[in-house]
Amino acid sequence: MAELTEPDAIRDQVREKYAAAARAAAAGAVAPSSCCGPTEVPLTDASGTQVFGDALYGAAEAAGAANAVGASLGCGVPTAVADLHEGETVLDLGSGAGADVLISARRVGTTGRVIGLDMTDEMLELARANAAAAGVANAEFVKGHIEDIPLPEASVDVVISNCVINLSGDKAAVLREVARVLRPGGRFAVSDVIADPSMDEATRADMAQWTGCIAGALTREEFEGMLGAAGLVDVEIRETHRVHEHAAAAIVRARRPAADGGCCAPAAHKDCCEPDAKSDCCGEPAAGAVTASCGCRAA
Ligand SMILES: C[S@@+](CC[C@H](N)C(=O)[O-])C[C@H]1O[C@@H](n2cnc3c(N)ncnc32)[C@H](O)[C@@H]1O
């Protein structure tokens, strides 16, 4: 069994699991697994209530994206809290079958753009087929890792995600990447699983549970700390429903500070040392700002 400290081994196991889920969905299986998989954690909780997948979406949200919503493996509806506007650029981390991408594409309209990022070929193929069936033209699906997002800095207005960050073996890297690709003032609005502080070590350490998402989840305190360390502010974590004896689904929101009075957010400093780069990645410096060795500061 792979050690939890081996992000590549974790990713391989996660990829295998979701490739199988995508194949099952493409073959028409009904709700092949939850975010947490049919064996490790079922779609339903102990009382039989569905806590993952399509049951979380209202009919209005699902309209026009029925196939993708039907194959959802998420633990919430991030588009319900992302407050998307016409013309915005949205990035969905771990886009799966594409439900949240297609819903976002409708919200941002033809002047906006939505990018779904996923590492699993089978999921990308399924999502592209769902987008084509829904007639959505302002969405694209890109292959890559959420720990190393293949997009330029300050290139998206909103980052959404649905039950994916908990799967990563390097969550601090994911959140640093979020801060890097967000424009100043950009928003982070995700659904994810948060672990109770009381989650026991045996559950946390079990690889099968990890690929099923529960054991990999951060606690509220850990999530807040990592978001802050990445340079994101206005952090809000709101539990939506229980998904496990030791974990809950939650909405997690934060934002990248706006233009920082002419300075780069801490997460962007290393990529932002030249005055030319600064206006790209920090926006226009504030009036009276002067350039410093790295980042710019108000005079
Ligand atoms: C639990 S499913 C959620 C899919 C989708 N967000 C939804 O709500 O239905 C996790 C998805 O994230 C992708 N994924 C997991 N870890 C990833 C990583 N490190 N980088 C990129 N994609 C990842 C998987 O391939 C899978 O499609």
What is the count of DSSP helices, taking H or I runs of 4+ residues? 10
Helicity range = 25-40%
Structural class, please? alpha/beta
- Order of helices and strands, N to C? HHHEHEHEEHEHHEHEEHEE
Could you say what the CATH topology of the largest domain is called?
Rossmann fold
CATH architecture term of the largest domain = 3-Layer(aba) Sandwich
The mean pLDDT is: 83
- How would you describe the oligomerization state of the chains in this entry? single chain
| Low-confidence blocks of residues | 31-41, 273-299
Strand content: 15-25%
End-to-end gap: 55 Å
Based on Cα principal axes, name the global outline.
globular
Listed once per kind, the bound small molecules are: S-adenosylmethionine
DSSP, total strands: 10
Largest sheet: 8 strands, mixed
The CATH homologous superfamily of the largest domain is termed Vaccinia Virus protein VP39
C-alpha-based Rg, rounded: 19 Å
Question: Regarding CATH, which class of the largest domain?
Answer: Alpha Beta
The count of domains is 2
Write a brief structural summary.
The chain is of the alpha/beta class. It has ten helices and ten strands. 31% of the residues lie in helices and 22% in strands.
Feature tags:
Rossmann fold; two-stranded antiparallel ribbon; 10 helices; 299 residues; binds S-adenosylmethionine; globular; alpha/beta
Description of the structure:
The chain folds into two domains: 7-257, Vaccinia Virus protein VP39 (Rossmann fold, 3-Layer(aba) Sandwich), CATH 3.40.50.150; 262-298, no CATH class. It is 31% helix and 22% strand. It is built from ten helices and ten strands. The protein starts with 6 loop residues before the first helix and ends with a strand. S-adenosylmethionine binds next to helix 1.
